[in-house]
UniProtKB/TrEMBL annotation:
Protein name as it appears in the record: ATP-dependent helicase DinG
Molecular function in Gene Ontology: 5'-3' DNA helicase activity; ATP binding; hydrolase activity, acting on acid anhydrides, in phosphorus-containing anhydrides; nucleic acid binding
Gene3D superfamilies on file: P-loop containing nucleotide triphosphate hydrolases (3.40.50.300)
Any Gene Ontology biological process: nucleobase-containing compound metabolic process
Family: Belongs to the helicase family. DinG subfamily.
Protein's organism: Jonesia denitrificans (strain ATCC 14870 / DSM 20603 / BCRC 15368 / CIP 55.134 / JCM 11481 / NBRC 15587 / NCTC 10816 / Prevot 55134)
EC number: 5.6.2.3
Principal EC category: isomerase
Record keyword Hydrolase present: yes
Reaction(s) this enzyme catalyzes, per UniProt: ATP + H2O = ADP + phosphate + H(+)
Length: 669
């Protein structure tokens, strides 16, 4: 039986079928969200919907998405920010949904996963089709890793391996994998090893490749362009918004999950950098792979290196200063000529892999230099900085990032498409204005916003402890007072603690000190792959897990394993973050409150995500402890608190400790 395509009630009946097949019942708010999503698709109007933790929002948008795609033959794109959610949708949610709805739809939906080109291993490169040299295996200015690289240096590598060993493992895996997707390679490898065995779209020789029919990214793209529903990531949306619309198949609807992350992910995708090292790499490829003379580009690289050598870390207002502008202009002009010289004479010449690689590298340099020397750079933030990773003496680089991505999204993604954005954290104090403005939907007349409440009883399930009497955190990673607080709380909880820290140094110091003070195991992010650490944390109720931003979002540990979430400080953006600083200044210049619009909003969303790690099911109970008194004493504290789940609040440490003691006694520990 085929449901009427226009009946949202019928789509909710499909949701009932799916949820019942999983042994449950629709959750509070889930049907409301399903109806809102379906109505947005039918009415072709944008929707921003906040769905509290536990709502079951993925099924709430996937059911109407599948029904819409099958009934109308119009493609739906679903974009997520995190690998965990992407994997959940592809390996669990969609297969279960398709099986449950099979008797109720005209046909089974075709679904596909689509990622950027370099996320897939290049078979031609793995088989030696692209010439390799050691210098091209590394990012410019990156230190070459020694044999026996540790997992602390590369958290995505599950075992201690040399670069050569990692590359050999990729080659072996490439012969057997069905997907070629980096995320399917377990244990993972370092970025440097993966770069050696993958290509980006510009480097790919396309139809000239002798292995084109086996090409993993090309086949993934073809599958996606024929699918009803395509699952992708925010970065792909960022690439599309930056002018490469062809990276996505034609579509009618875009559903953005984890939408609070969208602006940052699009900003990252649109950020570029330029250094003498990156120029030298491109010139080297042009000489060795393209057989071209690169004297002009070499001279321009030297000019830029000289101009950068004494540059302090700083943001530029009104474009690059004269010396840097002249140097980057020389790079632009030299690379433009070299791009023309590197054009392959025969498009079907299968021996042109190295030439295509060289042309791609030089074209990238040209496009970056042209952007940095444009007559009007007011849409970009330009700055000079030394890389944070690597040697303290590493030469500085120039960077360019969009001042705002709202116009990019408004002009490139939303027109002629139905935009549906959802997350557990979009409204601050029930207000969607900031979220709409950030993603380019402010002022859209037919925009619908909806807040779907969580099914959790937060005042009865959770306590929010605000450490009002602690000193305000200073420049030190973690203070002695904070460490004493964490020690007492961990002992009361008998482990069971997720520690969310504002910096890697803070997490490391807390782990080092507390491993000596408490008898419960403490795992530290970076000691192993993150999924492995989360699994160990979940399996041993007395274990603690400490880490930084990757743990603030996406970690789902329901049950007794996590009964205490500790947050060391309000997660304001770094004061030296050039993009957010420029955005703050721009808001202030237009008459707004830059601090509240940018820094406080960023902190509020992260706090909400972090606090949301505690209550993951209707049976969970515990304490969120924020060890930064400013949330209770500063004027902006109430704004931050309005973003958090409505847990019962206290400023008394004894109250939090007593509650944790009661919880552990009930657990039998």
């Amino acid at each position: 039986m085929t449901p009427p395509a226009t009946a949202s009630a019928t789509v909710n009946s499909l949701l009932d079928i799916v949820v019942t097949s999983l042994g449950g019942a629709p959750r509070r708010g889930q049907q409301d969200m399903t109806s809102a999503v379906f109505d947005a698709m039918e009415g072709h109007h944008p929707l921003i919907v906040q769905a509290g933790t536990g709502t079951g929002k993925s099924m709430a948008y996937l059911v109407p998405a599948v029904a819409h795609a099958v009934a109308t033959n119009e493609r739906v794109i679903v974009a997520t920010a995190t690998l965990a959610l992407q994997r959940q949708i592809m390996t669990r949610d969609l297969p279960l949904l398709s099986q449950a709805l099979q008797p109720h739809l005209d046909r089974q939906p075709d679904v596909a996963l689509l990622k950027g080109w370099s996320n897939y291993v290049c078979l031609h490169k793995a088989q030696g089709g692209y010439p390799q040299e050691e210098a091209t295996l590394f990012a410019p200015d990156d230190p070459v890793p020694a044999a026996g690289t540790s997992t602390a240096d590369h958290p995505d590598t599950a075992e201690v391996e040399s670069l050569a060993d990692q590359m050999r493992r990729i080659v072996t895996w490439a012969r057997d994998t069905d997907t070629g997707d980096r995320d399917d390679l377990v244990p993972g490898v370092s970025d440097r090893a993966w770069r050696a065995m993958s290509v980006d779209k510009l480097e790919c020789i396309g139809s000239s490749c002798p292995l084109i029919h086996e090409c993993f990214p090309d086949n993934a793209r073809k599958t996606a362009f024929d699918a009803d529903l395509v699952v992708t990531n925010h970065t792909m949306l960022g690439i599309a918004a930056s002018g490469s619309a062809g990276v996505l198949p034609e579509h009618d609807v875009i559903i953005v999950d984890e939408a609070h992350e969208l602006a940052d992910r699009v900003t990252s995708a649109a950020t570029v950098d330029l250094s003498a090292g990156s120029i030298d790499k491109a010139a080297r490829l042009a000489r060795r792979r393209g057989g071209r003379v690169t004297d002009a580009l070499d001279d321009a690289s030297a000019q830029l290196a000289l101009a950068l050598i004494n540059q302090p870390d700083q943001t530029f207002t009104g474009g690059l200063p004269a010396e840097l502008h002249d140097a980057v202009s020389a790079v632009r002009d030299a690379s433009r000529l070299l791009v023309s010289e590197l054009k392959p004479e025969k498009k079907d010449d299968t021996a042109d892999a190295g030439l295509k690689q060289a042309q791609a590298a030089v074209l990238s340099i040209f496009e970056i230099a042209e952007r940095m020397t444009a007559e009007d750079t007011s849409a970009d933030v330009l700055w000079c900085a030394r890389p944070r990773i690597g040697s303290d003496t590493a030469p500085p680089r120039l960077y360019a990032a969009p001042l705002s991505v709202s116009s990019l999204l408004a002009q490139a993604l939303w027109p002629e498409h139905t935009a549906i954005l959802t997350s557990a954290t979009l409204a601050i104090g029930g207000n969607f204005d900031s979220a709409a403005r950030t993603v380019g939907l402010a002022g859209v007349d037919d925009l619908v916003t909806k807040d779907v409440a969580s099914p959790f009883d937060y005042p009865r399930q959770g306590i929010l402890y605000l450490a009002r009497d602690l000193p305000v955190p200073g420049s030190s990673p973690t203070t002695d007072d904070q460490l004493a607080h964490i020690e007492e709380l961990i002992n009361a909880a008998h482990g069971r603690t997720l520690g969310l820290f504002s910096s890697r140094k803070a997490a490391q110091r807390a782990a080092e000190v507390l491993k000596e003070r408490v008898s419960y195991p403490i795992l530290l992010q970076g000691e192993d792959q993150l999924p492995t650490l989360v699994r160990l944390f979940r399996e041993d109720p007395q274990t603690c897990l400490f880490g930084t931003l990757s743990l603030w979002q996406g970690v789902d540990v329901p049950g007794d394993a996590c009964q205490l979430v500790v947050i060391d400080r309000i997660p304001f953006p770094r004061p030296d973050d050039p993009v957010r600083s420029a955005r703050t200044k721009a808001v202030a210049q237009s008459g707004g409150n830059g601090f509240m619009t940018v820094a406080a909003h960023h902190a509020a969303l992260l706090l909400a995500q972090g606090a949301g790690r505690l209550i993951r099911s209707t049976d969970d109970k515990g304490v969120v402890a924020i060890l930064d008194p400013r949330i209770a004493t500063a004027r902006y504290g109430q704004y931050l608190l309005s973003a958090l789940p409505p847990m019962w609040r206290t400023t008394q440490k004894a109250t939090a400790v007593s509650a944790l003691h009661r919880l552990t006694s009930r657990s039998g520990d």
